[in-house]
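Q: I have 158 residues here and want to know how they pack in 3D. Can you give me a structure?
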Amino acid sequence: MGEIPRRARTLRQRLKGRTKPFQLRFFFSNIPSNDFIKKWCSLTPGASLDFSEFQTELHEVKRNATNEQDHVALLQLHDIISKFMERNVVEQEKLQSFKELRDKDYKLLLIYEALDGEYISPDKISAVTSREVAACRMSPEDKFHQLALAGAMILGKP
């Protein structure tokens, strides 16, 4: 698991200023949808992109992810595509509302990972948000993280 953030950082560094399509050839161990990955990882600046289509497909794949590595990889893909959108597609006057949408979508993806049947497990959501804080993808002061910690403390297993 420690390998993923380093690879993602390396990928982001390689993508700066790049105009050719890029490929993600790592992580995704048990996710059956390689077509999904190939489709969304072969974008170029200026490309037409339907973010709602990406969200719909990502949520479907995320619901079927079976291990932490796959969940983290999908969160990283969400981050990469969102930042691509911010830099190359979203108009400046709509940027703030897009960032708010991205944040809400990110938190929904975290909730998928914490589901225990059809309910959110307080212990799981606390562990997931703590992992995100440790990986610097979420602020320790984020209200969602604080709520997850409080919920686990009050409702979690003793």
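Q: Anything worth noting?
A: The mean pLDDT is 77. Residues 3-10+49-155 form one domain.
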